[in-house]
Amino acid sequence: MITHLLRAGIFLASAALGLIVADLILDDFTIVWSRWWEFLLCIVIFALVQTVLSWLAEKILHRFLPVLVGGVGILSTLISLLIVVLLPADGIRIDGLVGWIAGGVIVWLVAAIAMIVLSKILLKDRKQQSARK
Fold this sequence. Notes:
The protein contains 4 helices and 2 strands, in the order αβααβα. The protein is mostly helical. It has a two-stranded antiparallel ribbon with strand order 1-2. The protein starts with a helix and ends with a helix.
């Protein structure tokens, strides 16, 4: 149970990091820091939508179009960003084609790297603690 909560926390943290890095790098990708509670809501919704879309797309594509499975991550990131931006919450704003394309790639790449690094650090300790018992 703790491992599942830890994985969820890692996923939320990696999504937040991806969004923050995109905000820092791109002028067309903006986090509205004055409404930080809406940004937190956007992080949670982004992570949930991306999780569901990734799982669903991977199941469907793996069965019918296995060649396209590699693009599931970036596609689910872009769709998740679209849903979050369309929310009435004003936590994230994306303007222009560059903001959408570069923002999607940055969020996807940073979140993927953060997920790998945080999982190795935090879940490795859990495995070592379990092995000692």
